[in-house]
Design a protein that fits this description.
Glutamine Phosphoribosylpyrophosphate, subunit 1, domain 1; five-stranded antiparallel sheet; 223 residues
């Protein structure tokens, strides 16, 4: 994705280019799994190798981000504010759909000069696990299996062949990692490392570096 800037004040500037990222979301029988790579790019330049694209919002909610980093972080901070306010006023966590609607409202209200961000909002509430994909114009879609970013075609190749509806998180999080690892090998703007989190009735848990090393070794050997 790109955004053109013709002038700032009286100075002519070029264009700011944002692209890259692979994010994955899976709805499971006992919760949801979210995964991302960690490479941050600016055009053809690797700006950071361990960027955080998987972010905890509340104990029952998390987000993945892709697009412009500052724009996405603005959306994340806004959602954190409203989820904290909801918890204080209602004495319970915000439902997943309501959180996704907050993000949708923020992005839709800025559509004339949009935030360049495509996000997944996932979590668990009284109705079970759910994931919503919200694009930079505020369109909101509920998904069972979803991938975003430039590496998503590669990730979908893994997910569509191996994901089974109703699978537990214990089997889904290695699959999500496998999809991200595949994208890091075949998409130049995806790479370096990956993050995976599980959200279930116990709350938010991000898998450890030791677990990541085992998954990386497993899928490197198999492929």
């Amino acid at each position: 994705m790109s955004r053109e800037f013709n002038t700032v004040g009286r100075k002519t500037v070029g264009s700011a280019v944002y692209h890259g990222t692979t994010t994955v979301g899976l709805v499971c029988s006992d919760g949801v799994v979210l995964a991302t790579d960690t490479r941050v790019t600016a055009g053809g330049f690797i700006a950071h190798k361990r960027g955080k694209k998987l972010l905890r919002i509340d104990n029952n909610l998390a987000m993945t981000i892709s697009g412009g980093v500052a724009d996405a972080q603005n959306v994340v901070d806004t959602l954190k504010y409203y989820t904290n306010l909801y918890r204080i006023e209602k004495s319970r966590p915000m439902p997943v759909k309501a959180a996704a609607q907050v993000v949708s409202n923020v992005l839709f209200s800025s559509r004339l000069y949009p935030f360049i961000a495509d996000v997944l909002v996932g979590g668990v509430d009284s109705s079970g696990g759910s994931i919503f994909n919200v694009d930079f114009f505020g369109s909101m879609n509920k998904e069972k299996v979803v991938a975003t970013g430039s590496g998503s075609p590669v990730a979908y190749g893994i997910l569509e062949s191996e994901f089974k509806e109703g699978m537990p998180t214990s089997k889904a999080y290695p699959l999500a990692a496998k999809a991200i690892i595949a994208a890091t090998r075949r998409n130049v703007a995806t790479g370096d490392h990956f993050d995976v989190a599980v959200l279930d009735k116990e709350g938010f848990r991000e898998i450890s570096e030791q677990e990541k090393d085992k998954l990386l070794a497993q899928f490197t050997t198999n492929n």
